[in-house]
Amino acid sequence: MTHYPFELPPLPYAYDALEPYIDTLTMELHHDRHLKTYTDNLNAALKDHPEYHSWSLEKLITGANWLPEALRTPVKNNAGGVYNHVFFFSNLTPEQGLHPDEALLEAIDSAFGGFEEMTKAFATEAAAVFGSGYAWLAADAKGGLTIVKTANQDTLLTRGLFPVICIDVWEHAYYLKHYNKRAGYIQDWVHIVNWETANTYFKAAQAR
Ligand code: MN3
Fold it and tell me: What's phi and psi for 55, nearest 5 deg?
């Protein structure tokens, strides 16, 4: 995952690991088709531009405006698609009983008044994404926490925010099981958030 040609990153657990909250077929399609398509399209866009073959995924996203105009949109959409999905999948786990560590919990308390309040605010924000996109719990440069929405495959990399957790609310993430009921998907997702990786991401954000 360092630079071109980008490889499809493996799913960090089995396709059926997140049952019954996210079904096996959804995970298979989401990883093997949707993420694969973003990866393939990113490589296809860069194929005839060897001058960018050493650029990392992050550099392609944050430096997209320096690319030739014809490359900007395909790179933004597909590099963003790869980056967001890798983050999203890393932030899910079949392991139950994980929780935010002391530092993250403190930041959650101070920003939202408690874990329950944060979860409620997060669900509201995720439900409010119009069309396709993501909701994020993110750390700002001062280590404070905020909840933000992004559209399509926009990332937080260009906003000075560091993601801690995220939910993909594109319909492909839930339609087979939850149909049009995004709220049901969000309620299920709460059970499989990987608070271990969230703790790690928050710590990394604070270290910057
Ligand atoms: Mn997706």
Answer: -75, 135
Q: How far apart are CA 56 and CA 17, in angstroms?
A: 30
Residue 6 lies in a domain: no
Tell how far the Cα of 194 is from the centroid of ligand 1, in angstroms. 17
Task: Judge if 166 and 80 occupy the same domain.
Answer: no
Residue 8 belongs to a domain = no
pLDDT at 1 over 60: no
pTM over 0.90: yes
Task: Indicate if 68 and 116 belong to the same structural domain.
Answer: no
Percent of the chain with pLDDT strictly greater than 70? 100
- Residues 59-82: tens digit of each pLDDT: 999 999 999 999 999 999 999 999
**84 Cα–ligand 1 center, Å:** 8
Residues with CB under 5 A from ligand 1 (ion): 168, 170
Convert the pLDDT of each residue in 162-176 to its tens digit.
999 999 999 999 999
67 and 124 co-located in one domain: no
On whether both 37 and 59 belong to a single domain, the answer is: yes
Gap from CA of 23 to ligand 1 centroid (Å): 14
**CATH classification at residue 40:** 1.10.287.990
Q: Give 91-149 as a DSSP string.
A: TB-S--S----HHHHHHHHHHHSSHHHHHHHHHHHHHT--SSEEEEEEE-TTS-EEEEE
CA of 114 to the centre of ligand 1 (A): 29
